[in-house]
């Protein structure tokens, strides 16, 4: 099964975290056919459903040894991303005026209690799923908290957010990982 791994709070090229290091950490953690997309900790890998949580845990440990701090890795199956994308929650929201994002908790975090999210101001909460919050935030003006901040405040747990277009790219079918098994996509 193909998985997306969303690494919180990292930027490839900083803190000694090159793409090669990131892909090596994923592969050594048990992720087959590792692939890096963009520069903000977006990965894809293959693993059986029962193995994916183990891969994620090992990847978090390896990243901690590289970065000197623990960072969340939120993993979702490619199928679950496709289900999320099928919701098409941003119809009617102009990308020029709205930031369209989804915040993710770790795969094994307790379910989100929608009432705990509190006042979202001008940020529109479009869907609250078990471990994700889908939101549109005006690009300008006040009282528009980031969906990631809302989710972390409500749950007391780290979260990571991705823009809708990034999720579309992560969920897209593979265009083929090079034979050496180390894919890099922009």
Helix and strand pattern: EHEEHEHEEEHEHE
Assign the structural class, choosing from mainly alpha, mainly beta, alpha/beta, alpha+beta, or little secondary structure: alpha+beta
Largest sheet: 5 strands, mixed
Q: If you compute it from the alpha carbons, what radius of gyration comes out, rounded to the nearest whole angstrom? A: 16 Å
Structure description:
α1 crosses α2 and α3 packs across α5. The protein is globular, with a radius of gyration of 16 Å. 28% of the residues lie in helices and 26% in strands. β2 and β3 form a beta hairpin. It is of the alpha+beta class and 186 residues long.
Would you spell out the secondary-structure blueprint of this structure?
Elements: E1 2-7, H1 19-28, E2 32-37, E3 42-46, H2 52-67, E4 73-77, H3 78-86, E5 98-104, E6 124-128, E7 132-138, H4 147-155, E8 160-163, H5 164-171, E9 183-185
Parallel strand pairs: 2-9
Antiparallel strand pairs: 1-3, 1-4, 2-3, 5-7, 5-8, 6-7
Task: State the main characteristics.
single chain; 186 residues; alpha+beta; 5-stranded mixed sheet; 4-stranded antiparallel sheet; 5 helices; 28% helix
